[in-house]
Amino acid sequence: APAASGEKAGKIKIALSNSFIGNQWRVEMENVYKAACAMPPYVDQVECSVFNAGNDVSTQSRQISNLISQGVDAIVINAASTSGLNGVVQQACDRGIVIVSFDNTVDNQCGLTVNTDQIKFGQQLAQFIVDELNGQGNVVMVTGVAGTGADNDRNKGAKEVFAANPGIKVVSSYTGMWDSATAQRATSAQLPNLPEIHGVWVSGGTDGVIKAFVAAKRPMPVVGGEAENGFRKFMAGILTPKVNGMSIGQPPFLSVISLELARAVVKGEHPKSSITIPFPVATSDKMVPGETVFPDLPDSFFADFTDSGPNATVILCQEAATDGTPCPGKTLDVNLGTP
Amino acid sequence: MRDALRRVSLGYLVLAATAVAYIVVYTSRLGRFPTSFDYLSILNTTLPLVFVAIGQSLVVLTGGIDLSVGGMVSVCVAVTATTVSSSITWLFVVLAIGTACGALNGLIVAYGRIAPILTTLATLSIFTGLGLRVLPVPGGSIPQEVRLVLTNPATPTGLIWLGLAVAGWLVLRRTRFGMRVYAIGSDEASARAVGVPAAAVKLKVYALSGLCSALAAVFYVSTTTSGDANAGNPFILTSIASVVVGGVAFSGGRGSALGAVAGAVALTLVIDILFFSGIDPLYQSLFQGLFLVVAVLLGTVAALAARRRRQA
Amino acid sequence: MSSRRVLYALGGTVAVLLVGAILHPGFASWSSLRVMLVVASFTGFVAAGQMLVVLVGGIDLSIPWVLNGAAIVLTTSSLGQTSRAPLAILLALGVGALVGLGNGMGVAWLGVPAVVMTLGMNGVMQGLTLGLSKGLTCASCGSYAPEPLRGLFDGALPAQLFLWAGVGLFMTVLLTLTTFGRRVYAVGVNPRAAFLSGVGVRGVTVALYTLSGVFAALAGIALVAYGGQPSLGLGDPYLFESIAAVVVGGVSILGGRGHYLGVIAGSLTLVAVTTFLQAQRVPEYGRLMIYGLVILAILFAYGREKAHD
Amino acid sequence: MTETSSMAPAQAEPGSETLAVRASGVDRAFGGVQALRDASFAARPGEIHALAGENGAGKSTLIKVLCGLIKADKGTVEIFGTEVSRVVEPAARRRMGVATAFQELSLLPDLTVAENLLLQDPPRGRLGLVQRRRLAPAAEEILNRYGVDDIDPRATAADLSVAQRQVVELVRVLAGEPRVVILDEPTAALADRQVDWLAGHMRRLRDAGSCVIFTSHRWREIESLADRVTVFRNGTHVATRDTLSEAEAVTLMSGRSFAGAYPQITTEPTDDNALSVTNLHSGRLAGVDFDLRRGEILGVGGLAGQGQRDLFLSLFGAQRVRRGTIAVDGKAVTIRSPKDAIRAGVGIAYVPEDRKAEGLFLPLSIRDNIAAATLSRRATAGFVNRGKERAVVKSIVDQLNIGAGRSTNRAADTLSGGNQQKVVMARWLLTEARILLLFDVTRGVDAATKHDIYELVGTLAAQGRAILYYSSETEEIAHLCHRVLVLREGRVAAELAGPVGDAERIVAASIKEGQDA
Ligand SMILES: Nc1ncnc2c1ncn2[C@@H]1O[C@H](COP(=O)(O)OP(=O)(O)OP(=O)(O)O)[C@@H](O)[C@H]1O
Ligand SMILES: Nc1ncnc2c1ncn2[C@@H]1O[C@H](COP(=O)(O)OP(=O)(O)OP(=O)(O)O)[C@@H](O)[C@H]1O
Ligand SMILES: [Mg+2]
Ligand SMILES: [Mg+2]
Asked: Does the residue D129 lie in any domain?
C-alpha cells in the first residue's frame, strides 16, 4: 500500500469518524469540529472530513477502513463501541495513521485518547450532593445506558462516595438511558413510590428528571447532573423553580481537542500521549447567560460546548456549536496543557 | 436449477449494481481501483452479518422471523470475549450456547405455538439481559491465533469461511431437511399433511439460526478483538434488510440464503458508496432507507414482469 | 373469541398491579396509577396506530422517526406561541399522515412488504429530520411546546387521560360501528374474499397506514408537550414497545382480531411491569430478562395459535 | 387384539380375514364440535371402499385420523392389525403403506411439481445428498408412468390449474404403490376424462390387492367404482353395504328422501339482453362473444382450464381485461374492480367455488359475512345501521334456511360446509344483483344442500335474473341450463341449446372442433 502519510507538503488530512448523530451532543460535537476546521490555524493546515455510522460498529469499521484507503494522516474517533473498533484501529496504526479517540474511546492502546475522567464525574457530583445535604438524606440515582463503559464508571464513582457516607441512603436507582424524555417518564413513574427525596444524582437526562419532580409537585431536591441547557436553565432560575445543583458535562469540544492533538502529533509538535481534561463545572451560584446557560437554545442542547475562565482549554462561540460555522475573526487556540 | 437462479436473482442483481457503483465511486474519488486491503476489510467486516443473514434467511424461508438474533449475538459475543482467551475449547461452548438459545426459540414457536415475531421479541429482551449479565462493560479479548485463523487482516482467511458458509448452504439445500424448510414455508399445513415433521424441522431451523448467530459473534469478536454486550443490536434490522434485499420472500418458501449473503455484502457496499460519494452525514440514513425500498421495489417489479411473461 | 382476549388482557393488567401492590405497598395507589396511566398513554397512542396496521397483517417500523419528526415540527412551527398552536398541531399531524400515506401506497400499490417499506421510511424520516433541523440546532429549534399543550398533564385527572379516552372512543367506534371498521376486519381475516366482496382493499390499507402515521405524530405531540421541548431519539423506545403493547393487548399478529380496549390494557401492563421492576431496584440485566419472561408468560396465557391437530 | 374384536363393530365381517384399515369407537372434537362420535370403519385389502355422507358428516375427519394427521380423542385405529392410535405422524403411516390425497389439496405452492412429488423420497447420490438435477427427470418419469404428459415437472405448483394440481396430488399418492390408498374427494376438481383416468388406476390398485378408500358427493362415481359403501351421518357410522341404491343412500345420509336429482327448468328466459360480451380478452380468453338474457341460466362448459375462471373473474372486475367490451342492459360499462361490478347500476355478483379462500371470513360472525358486500347500503355517514342490518340478515337467513335458526352472532367457521356455501350465496343475494356469476357453487356440497341450491337457482331465474353458471360436474350444466357455451382454448367453441340433458354432448363439443356452433 502506498504510504500516504509520506509527503507532508500540502495540508494534512484529518477525518472525524463519529459513531452516530442521533442526539444533540453528537451534533454539537460535530459542529464545533467543523467550525474549528474552518478557523485558523486548521483552515490552512488541515483538510477535514466528517463521517457518521448510524451507531453500528461494522459501519464505523468500514468507514475507518475507507479512511485508511483514502490515505488520511489522522482519524479522530468517537466509537460506537469501545471494544468494537480495536481491529481496524490496529490496522490504521500499522499504517502510521494517528488515531485519536474521545468520549467513547477505543480500547486499543496503539491510539491516543482525549477524555474526561468518568469515575471522577460520578464522584464529584455525588460529593456535591453529600456536601449540600450535610451527609444526611435520601438520594436517587438515575443511570445511563447499561453496558457502556461511561455508565459503569460514573455509577461506580457515585456509589463509592455515597457508600462512604452512612447518612446518605440511595433509595432508588433506575436508568434514564441518557435521554431526557426517558428519564422524565421513568422518574414520574417512580416518584409516587418514593419517600421524600433530598438529592438526585443524574448521569444524563437531568432536565427530564427535574421536570418530573415539578410535575409531581414534589419538593425540589439538590441535583447533580449533566450539562443539558434545560438543567442549567433551572439552575439559573430561567425556568422555575430555581434548582440548587451542580452541572458537569462531557464537553462536546473534546472533538476539537482531539483535532488539535492529531494535528500536533502529525506535525511532530506534540509527543504521542493521551490527554485527560478537567470537566467544565457549573454551579447554581455562578450561572452566566450566554456563557454557561443559553436561554434561546433547546433544553436538550449541551451548554458546555465551550470552556470558560482563564485556564480554559478552548473557547468557542455559540454559532460554532449551533451551525458549525467559524467564530468571527479568531484564531482558535487550544490549550493541550503540559504533557 | 434455472428456477433457483430466477428466484435469487434479485440479491445478485442488487449486489452487482452496488459493486459497480462502489468501484465507480471509489475510483472517481481516489483515482485508482480498490486494493486488496479494501476487499479484505469489506470481507472481514461483513462476515458477522453474513452469518446472521444466513440464519435469518433460514427462518424467513419457513415463514417466520427472528428478532432475537440481536440478543443471541450479544450473549455469544459476551461469552466469547470473556472466556475464549482462557481456553479455545470455549469456542465450542459458545456455539452450543447460540444453538441452545435458538432451540429455545424453536421450542416456543414450534411446540408452544406462539408467533415467531412475538416469541423472538420476548427472547430478544431475555438474551440481551443475559449478555449484559455476562459482560456488564465492554471488554474481554480473543487470542491472536484465533484471530489469524478466522479474520486475518493480512490474508484472506475470511474467504475460506465465506466459502464454507456458502458450501454449507449448498449442502443443506441438497438435503431432505433443506427441501422440507421450503415445504414448510410454502404451506405448513400441507407440508404436515404430506408427512413433513413440521415442528421438528422448525425447531432445527431456529436452532440453526442460533448457531449462525454464535458464529457471527465469534467472527465479530475476532474482527474487533474484544466484546460488547450491545454488539448484537444492529444485526436485528440489518439481517432482515439483507434477507429482503437478497430476494427471500417474507411469506416464506421462496428465496435462498445465498441471496441473503449477497444482500449482506450489498448493504456493506452501500455504506462504502455513501462514504465515497461525500453525502452530508445528517442525510445519510435517508439514502440508506431509499436504497432499501428501491432495491425491493425493483425486485417486485422484476417478479411481476416474470409472472407476466410466464402467463403470456 | 377476541372479546375474551380483551378480558384476559385486562386480567393481566389487574394481576400485575395486584402483585405490585402486594410486594410494594403504594404501588397501586391513585397517585401512582395516575402517573402510570399518563406514561402508558404515550405507548397507547403509538400502539393505536400499530394495532390498525397489525389488524390487516401489516407492521409499522417507521414509528420512531415519524414521532420524532412530528415533535420537532410542532415546536419549530408553533415557536411556543399559543396562537400558532392549532396550525402547528395540524402541521405535525399532517406530516404523520403524509408519511403514513407514503407507507400505505408503498405497501398497497407497489406491493413492497410492510417491514421493508416502513423500515426504509424510518430511515428517510430520520435523514430528513436531522438534515432539515440541522440536528436540532436550527433557529427555531429552541422553541417550547405552546403553553396550553403543556397543561395537558396537570391536575388530579390530567387532560391527557381524557385525550387517551378520546382516542379509545375513536378507535372503538371506528372499528366496531362503522362500515370502515367492518372492512378492516374483513381485509385482516381474508383479503381475497374482501376484495371479491367489493371492499377497496388497497384503499383500506392506505387509510390504516395513514392513521398509523397520524397516531405516531400524535404521540410525538404529546411527548413534546410533556417534556416541553423535543430531543433527538425521542421515538426510539416506542418501536418494540408498541408491538409488545398490541400483542399483550390480545390483538392477533396475524391480523383480523383484536380490540383497542385490550391495547389500552396492554400498554398499562407494560408500563406497570417496568415501573415495578425499577421500584424493586432490579438491575438492568434482570429487568430486561424479566420483561421478556413476562411477555412470554402473557403470550402463553392467551397469545397462542390454534393447534394443527 | 382379543379386546378389540370383542367390541367388534356392526360392519366387521364374520369371516375374519385381515382388515387393511380398521377404526373403532373413535371420537374427535374440534373445540365444541363433535366431528366424530363413536365412529367405526373397516376396509379390506383388494376392495374399493366408498365413504359417503353429507357435508360435515365426518368423512374427512375420519380420514385424517386414519392417516395420522390428527389424533383421535378416543378409540383405536389399526392398520393391517397393528394398533397405531397413539402415533400421530403421517410419515409413520406412510411407511406402513398408507397414502392419502387430501380434500384440501396438500401441494406446496412454491415448490415445483417435481419437488412436490419427490419431497419425501428425493433421488439421492453419494453422501445421501439430494441430486437436484435428477429431480425433474425422475418426476417426469413418474408422471409418464401414470400416463400424465401435460404437466411440466419444472413448473411451480402455484402456476397449475386446480385440476392439474389435483392430478399431481393423485400421482404423488399413487406413485408409492401403497397398500392402502385414501382419496378424499379426489374427483371434485377433475374433468370427466381425468375421472376415468383415476378410476382406471383405482381399479388396478385394487386388483393388485391394495385397499382403496375414497369419498365423493357424486353418486354416479360411487356406484360405478365402489365394491362396498360405508355411510356416515353426524360423525357416526350408519351402514356398510355391498350394494346400495341412490335413493336409499340419500335417505341413509340425510335421514330424508328426495324426489329427482335435478329439478325441472320450468321458466323461459325473456328476450332482453342483460349482459352482452364482445371480443373479450383476459387471461386465457382470446376473444369471447355472447349474450345473456334476463331469466336465463347460461351454462359454461368445456374441459377444465379453458378460460372459464378467467371469464367469470374478468366479468366481475377481479381480473384485468385486455380487450373487449361488456355491456349491461345494452349500455357499455367499465368494470375495473368488484366494487364497480357490485355497484347498483351494474349489479353483478360472483359466487366463488372456493368458499374458504375466496368467500368467507371464517372467524367473523355469520351476520358480518352476509353483510360484507352491501355494507354501505345500510349505513348513514359511514355508520352501520345495526338494527336494519340484523333485520335484513335475519330475513335472508330464514329464506335460505341457514344454520337451523341459531344465532347469526356465531362465527362462520362453526357452520357445516353446506351452510357456509349458503352464507356466501346470501351475501350476494343481498346485493340484489341482476346478473349472477355462479362458479362451481356446488363443488363439494352434499346432495341435500345441492338440491337446495338447484331450486334456488331456478327461483332466481324465474325472478328475471340472468345467471351465468359453471360447474365442474358437466351433468349439472346439462340439466340445469337453458343454453350452454362450450369454451375451448379461450374461445366459444360451441353453443348448445338446453336443457342438453346429456352430459356426453357437452363433452363431445369440448373435444371436437367446430361442432354445431
Ligand atoms: N369448523 C368448525 N368449527 C367449529 N364448529 C364447527 C365447524 N364446522 C362445523 N361446526 C359445528 O359442528 C356442527 C356439526 O356439523 P354439521 O356439518 O353436521 O352441521 P349441521 O349443523 O348438521 O348442518 P347441516 O345439517 O346443514 O349439515 C355444526 O352444526 C357446527 O355448529
Ligand atoms: N379443523 C377443524 N376445526 C373445527 N371444526 C372442524 C375442523 N375440521 C372439521 N371440522 C368440523 O367437523 C365436522 C366434520 O367435518 P369433516 O370435514 O370431517 O366433514 P366431511 O364429511 O368431510 O364433509 P365434506 O363432505 O364437506 O368434506 C364438520 O362439522 C366440520 O365443520
Ligand atoms: Mg350436517
Ligand atoms: Mg371432507
From this structure: no
| Ligand 2 in reach of D59 Cβ (< 6 A) | yes
Residue D199 in contact with residue D224, Cβ under 8 Å?
Answer: yes
Q: Please report the pLDDT score of residue D116 as a whole number.
A: 92
Neighbouring-strand partners of residue D43: D21
**For the domain bounded by C2-308, which CATH number is listed?**
1.10.3470
Instruction: For residue D54, give the ligand 1 atom closest to its CA.
Output: 27
- Are D249 and D369 found together in one domain? no
User: How do residues D386-419 score in pLDDT, each as one tens digit?
Assistant: 999 999 999 999 988 887 667 888 888 878 777 8
Give ∠ CA A284-A287-A290 in degrees, rounded to 5: 155
- Domain stop point among D389, D413, D432: D432
The answer as to whether D118 is a domain residue is no
Q: pLDDT digits over D220-237, tens only?
A: 889 999 999 999 988 899
Q: CA–CA separation, B20 vs B40, rounded Å?
A: 17
Q: How many contacts, defined by CB atoms under 8 Å, are there between B and C? A: 144
Handedness of CA B257, B261, B262, B263 (dihedral sign): positive
Domain assignment of residue D52, given as a range: 18-88+216-258
Give the integer Cα–Cα distance in Å for B237 and B241: 6
Compare all CA atoms of chain A with the CA of C41 and give the residue at the minimum distance: A185
Burial class of residue D10, CB neighbours in 10 A (0-12, 13-18, 19+)? exposed
C-alpha B182/C-alpha B202 separation (Å) is: 11
Give the separation between CA A301 and CA A304, rounded to whole angstroms. 9
pLDDT of residue C307: 66
The CATH classification of domain B2-311, taken from the options 1.20.140, 3.40.50, 1.10.3470, 3.30.1490: 1.10.3470
Q: Which ligand is nearest to the CA of D58?
A: 2
Of B230, B234, B238, the CB nearest to A147: B230
Least confident of A24-28, C198-202, D501-505: D501-505
Of D192, D225, D258, the residue that ends a domain is D258
Q: Whose CA is nearest to atom 10 of ligand 1?
A: D414
Give this prediction's pTM: 0.88
Q: What is the ipTM of this complex?
A: 0.85
The set of cell numbers assigned to D395 is: 330475513
In chain C, domain spans? 2-308
What is the predicted pLDDT for the residue at D407? Answer: 84
Chain D hits for B194, CB-CB cut-off 8 Å, are 90, 106, 108, 119-120, 172
Give D413's DSSP letter: G
> What's the CA gap between C76 and C97, in Å, rounded?
18
Label residue A92 exposed, middle or buried (CB < 10 Å: 0-12, 13-18, 19+).
buried
Residue C39, C-beta contacts closer than 8 angstroms, at least 6 positions apart: A185, A188, A189, C271, C275
- How far apart are alpha carbons D164 and D414 in whole angstroms? 31
Confidence of residue A220 (pLDDT cuts 50, 70, 90): very high
Do D469 and D276 meet the contact criterion of CB atoms below 8 Å apart? no
pLDDT at A27: 87
CB A294 within 8 Å of CB A229: yes
Within this chain, do residues D233 and D280 fall inside the same structural domain, yes or no? no
- Specify the range with the lowest mean pLDDT, choosing from A306-320, B166-180, D354-368: A306-320
pLDDT for residue A235: 96
The DSSP-derived string for C32-87 is: HHHHHHHHHHHHHHHHHHHHHHHHTT-----HHHHHHHHHHHHHHHHTT-GGGHHH
Helix (H), strand (E) at residue A141:
strand A137-143
Q: Are residues D446 and D369 in the same domain?
A: no
Q: What is the mean pLDDT of residues A208-232?
A: 94
Q: Reply yes or no on whether the pLDDT at B7 is more than 80.
A: no
Taking the Cβ of residue B229 and every Cβ of chain A, the question of whether any pair is shorter than 8 Å is answered with yes
Distance CA D312, CA D288 (A): 12
Residue D145 lies in a domain: no
In a domain, D452, yes or no: yes
